[in-house]
Every structure is written in structure tokens, then in C-alpha cells.
């Protein structure tokens, strides 16, 4: 097995890796580090969780060493490496990692992002730093205010380029790139490669080496579970799973800000300590919730995709898709929050009838069918749902109907020059063709609990049928007679 030393890293960097407990390089690190040490351009297909931060940061730090240890004046510490990320959370985490990797070498770093007072960032910039991690909007603010110069940048990293595209940063990116010296090393990472990303890569990278970490590189350590359930019973099922399986550190994804808040409240009401993060929460609130979650004082963190993007929580054991994402690639991103760097993880999806179409897209993308597991007492055909029956029909609940339609918007970046675009507004699921009665007709097949050494007990798949069929099967007294 290759070691970090064999990849050609300097002893002081190896020492930092040792401090952090990194024993061996991950596949992407093994491939990227030697190439980047040579100064070659790299186009990396890798998601969060593969170790890509260290893959680009370690060689970048090493190549800065000859510049870094001369004197302390700002003139000798111009920004030499620029790392752009789509969100402030990711920017903060990347810079935290860089601080750890540089603890034994005189290389300085700083993170700048929107949402905090720009004046607090200026004094640090004035002291001189070699590595700047930034979100595009705030970086341009500083350029415009002449509080930083980019004319000595010799390395550019674009992290999660597809997210930057989604969030409307392409014009800002182009403006930033135009401010950099043309002689430089470029590394670009993206989980997906739509046409615009390929064009961006063509325009920025110079005969890059393409490095791909298989999509399932992370997924092999993630057990994917699908629980079909009536949409009105999702909250109860989630609480049941958390309590009965004693799950902790559970990151739960919802599709809307309102749903996010409401779910956290409901969980708290039944004694499960939860908090919500979404685009309407301030930066301070989000950091506080994340810290509490990391420290274990919050058991469940309910998040929207926008707020959770780029979160780095080591060895996160459970991710729950409370609402399935409408974009299959978001599913891959979400479950990338677990099973990181070889740790065990489980991704649990609660799938209602109207979401089966999204599940199909997901299965097509990941090239795998996920066998559905019915949780006893939460059969998709269960008719005895007092809470559901006592509620007025949805069309008589206008405020809720309206609120649930509203996808999360990016209001949190208002101080940024170019506001991030709203999270891609996905079409609202229309009621499926099957009649509502058919929902109550599915046969009940009891689940069976199991334990294994590395994971808490979870029900085993009990159904070979596609999930949609579980919502539609006619009653067969023999099969349903449990
Ligand atoms: P990333 O994909 O860069 O977000 O990294 C995911 C997580 O894996 C982070 O918590 C890193 O600290 C951790 N990590 C990265 N490389 C290694 C490694 N070689 N050994 C152990 N953990 C690692």
C-alpha cells in the first residue's frame, strides 16, 4: 500500500498528517498528489468525502514552501494560491483543513466569505497570507475595495465547480480568472460534468490530466436503505427509527425550509433533540447548530441541500432523505456525507408514493436498484392513521400548501455582490396516477430486524418488488394476512 511519504510529500507535511491520524492516502490523493507536485493541471471527478481537499491542498502547500519562509512583511507574503468554493461552509472547512496541514510549516492561510463584516477580514489580509480560500462574491468585493491583490497567484483551485455553476457564480468566476496571471497551475474538481462545466474546464485548464474517483468509491461504505411509507406518516416513522434503533448524529434532508423547521420542532416535541439549518438562518445560527451537532448535544440536524452543502462532519453515521431530492445527483451528494474515508455509514430514504419517480431516477444514476424495506407498523398501505384522517384535506390547508411549494431561496448571501441563485426549483410532485384508495391496498409484509457488528440494527429488505408497486398492489388476503 502506498504511503504519503512515497507520494513525495515533505517531512513537515507528513508530520501534520500523522498528527491528524491520516494513515494512508485515499485513492484520489494517491493519484492527484504526485501529479500536482509536478505542477500539472488537473481535472478531478470527485465528490466530497473522497479526501479531495487534501489531494489538492497538500501538493499546493508543498509547492509554496520555497516562497513561505522568508521574512514576515506582507510584501513577501502575497496571495500565491487561490481556492474558490461555492459556499462559506465549504470555504471554512477547506481552510480549517489547510490550517491543520500547515501547522508545522510557515505557510499562512485565510478564508473570506460573505455574511460577515468585511472589515474584520481586512487586517488579516494586510499581514500577508499565501493561501486564500474564498467564495466568489466576497472575493470580488475585496478586489473592488483593493483590499487584496491577485497578481501573484500561481495556483488556482476550483472546488465543487458544478455547485458554483448551479449557484450562478459563472460570471464571477470568469471575472476572477481574468484577474490572475496566465502562468499558473490549475486544479478543478466537480462531482458532475454538464456541458457548461466542460466548457469552463476547457477555458481554464491547460492540457489537464483527468482523474476520476469512481462514484461508488464512497458508496461502498454506505448502506443504502429505502423505506416506502405513506407521506403523512414520515414524521412518525423517522422518530420511530431514531428511537428504536437508537440512532444518533443523524443528518436529515428536507426539500423546503418550512418542512425543515417543522420537522425539527416535531422531533423536539417527541423528545428527540433536533435543530434545523437552512438558508433563512444566519451564519452564526448555522455554525452554532453545526457545532452542537458535531459535539453530540444535538442528536438530529435537519437541513436543506443548500445549507448542508459542503458540510464536513467526520464519520457521520446516518443520513436520512426525509424528502427525496428531485435531482438524482443531489442524492449522491447527500449520501456522500456519510461513509467517508472508509468509515461505515447508512443512508436511509423515506419514500412516499409521489416520490417513487425520483427514486427511479436515482437508481438509474447510481446503476443500482435499492431494495425497499417496509418497517412494520408503517406499511405504505396502512389505513389506520388517525392523525392523517383527522386533518382536513390538503386543498383546505392553503397556508401549508403555499409554504410547501416554496423551494429554499438563497437569502443568506445578501451581503454578497452577486446573490447566489435559488436552489434549483424542482417541479412539485404531482399526485401519482393511482387512486388514493390503492395506497391503502398494498399487502403488508413484515420487516425483520437484524444486527451486524458494524451497524445498529435495521430492518432487512423484505420486498423484491419495485417501490412503486408497494403502493399499488391489490389486496391479496394470503399475502396480507399478517
Ligand atoms: P474531503 O473529501 O476532502 O471532504 O475529506 C473527507 C474527510 O476525510 C475529511 O474529514 C478528511 O479529514 C478525511 N480524510 C481525508 N483524507 C484522509 C486520509 N488519507 N485518511 C483519513 N482521513 C482522511
Describe this protein with a few key phrases:
single chain, 482 residues, alpha/beta, Rossmann fold, seven-stranded parallel β-sheet, six-stranded parallel β-sheet, globular, binds adenosine monophosphate
What does this structure look like?
The protein is of the alpha/beta class and 482 residues long. It folds into 2 domains: 5-212, Rossmann fold, CATH 3.40.50.300; 222-400, 3-Layer(aba) Sandwich (Rossmann fold). It has 21 helices and 15 strands. The chain has helices at 11-20, 27-37, 52-68, 88-101, 118-127, 136-144, 161-166, 170-178, 195-204, 216-219, 234-244, 257-269, 283-295, 305-308, 328-335, 356-366, 386-390, 398-405, 436-439, 467-472, 477-480, and strands at 42-45, 81-84, 109-112, 131-134, 155-158, 185-190, 209-212, 222-228, 250-253, 274-277, 300-303, 318-321, 345-351, 449-452, 455-459. The strands form 3 sheets. Strands 3-4-2-5-6-1-7 form a 7-stranded parallel beta sheet, sandwiched between helices. A 6-stranded parallel beta sheet has the order 8-13-12-9-11-10, sandwiched between helices. It has a two-stranded antiparallel sheet with strand order 14-15. Helix 3 crosses helix 4. The protein is globular. 45% of the residues are buried. It binds adenosine monophosphate. Adenosine monophosphate (AMP) binds at residues 22, 25-26, 29, 48-54, 312, 314, 340-341.
Amino acid at each position: 500500500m502506498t504511503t504519503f511519504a512515497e507520494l513525495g510529500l515533505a517531512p513537515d507535511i507528513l508530520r501534520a498528517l500523522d498528527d491528524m491520524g491520516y494513515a494512508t492516502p485515499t485513492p484520489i490523493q494517491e493519484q492527484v498528489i504526485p501529479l500536482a507536485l509536478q505542477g500539472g493541471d488537473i481535472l478531478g471527478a470527485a465528490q466530497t468525502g473522497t479526501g479531495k481537499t487534501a489531494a489538492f491542498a497538500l501538493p499546493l502547500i508543498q509547492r509554496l514552501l520555497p516562497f513561505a519562509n522568508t521574512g514576515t512583511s506582507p510584501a513577501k507574503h502575497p496571495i500565491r494560491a487561490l481556492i474558490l468554493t461555492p459556499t462559506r461552509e465549504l470555504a471554512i472547512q477547506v481552510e480549517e483543513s489547510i490550517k491543520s496541514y500547515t501547522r508545522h510549516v510557515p505557510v499562512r492561510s485565510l478564508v473570506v466569505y460573505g455574511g460577515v463584516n468585511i472589515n474584520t477580514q481586512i487586517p488579516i489580509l494586510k499581514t500577508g497570507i499565501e493561501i486564500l480560500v474564498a467564495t466568489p462574491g466576497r472575493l470580488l468585493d475585496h478586489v473592488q475595495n483593493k483590499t487584496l491583490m491577485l497578481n501573484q497567484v500561481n495556483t488556482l483551485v476550483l472546488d465543487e465547480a458544478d455547485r458554483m455553476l448551479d449557484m450562478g457564480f459563472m460570471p464571477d468566476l470568469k471575472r476572477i480568472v481574468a484577474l490572475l496571471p496566465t502562468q499558473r497551475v490549475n486544479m478543478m474538481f466537480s462531482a458532475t460534468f454538464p456541458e457548461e462545466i466542460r466548457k469552463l474546464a476547457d477555458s481554464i485548464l491547460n492540457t489537464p490530466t483527468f482523474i476520476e474517483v469512481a462514484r461508488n468509491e464512497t458508496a461502498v461504505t454506505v448502506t443504502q436503505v429505502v423505506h416506502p411509507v405513506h407521506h403523512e406518516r414520515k414524521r412518525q416513522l423517522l422518530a420511530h427509527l431514531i428511537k428504536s434503533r437508537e440512532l444518533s448524529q443523524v443528518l436529515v434532508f428536507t426539500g423546503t425550509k418550512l418542512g425543515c423547521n417543522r420537522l425539527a420542532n416535531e422531533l423536539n416535541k417527541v423528545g428527540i433533540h433536533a435543530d434545523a439549518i437552512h438558508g433563512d438562518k444566519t451564519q452564526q445560527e448555522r455554525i452554532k447548530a453545526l457545532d452542537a451537532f458535531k459535539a453530540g448535544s444535538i442528536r438530529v440536524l435537519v437541513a436543506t441541500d443548500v445549507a448542508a452543502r459542503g458540510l464536513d462532519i467526520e464519520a457521520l453515521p446516518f443520513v436520512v432523505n426525509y424528502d427525496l431530492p428531485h435531482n438524482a445527483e443531489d442524492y449522491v451528494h447527500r449520501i456522500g456525507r456519510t461513509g467517508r474515508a472508509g468509515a461505515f455509514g447508512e443512508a436511509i430514504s423515506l419514500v412516499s408514493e409521489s416520490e417513487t419517480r425520483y427514486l427511479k431516477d436515482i437508481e438509474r444514476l447510481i446503476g443500482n436498484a435499492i431494495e425497499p424495506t417496509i418497517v412494520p407498523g408503517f406499511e405504505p398501505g396502512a389505513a389506520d392513521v388517525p392523525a392523517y384522517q383527522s386533518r382536513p384535506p390538503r386543498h383546505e390547508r392553503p397556508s401549508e400548501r403555499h409554504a410547501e411549494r416554496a423551494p429554499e431561496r438563497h437569502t443568506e448571501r445578501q451581503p454578497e455582490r452577486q446573490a447566489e441563485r435559488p436552489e434549483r426549483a424542482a417541479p412539485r410532485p404531482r399526485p401519482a396516477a393511482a387512486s388514493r384508495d390503492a395506497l391503502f391496498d398494498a399487502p403488508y409484509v413484515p420487516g425483520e430486524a437484524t444486527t451486524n457488528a458494524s451497524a445498529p440494527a435495521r430492518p432487512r429488505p423484505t420486498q423484491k418488488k419495485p417501490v412503486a408497486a408497494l403502493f399499488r398492489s391489490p389486496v391479496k388476503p394470503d399475502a396480507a394476512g399478517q
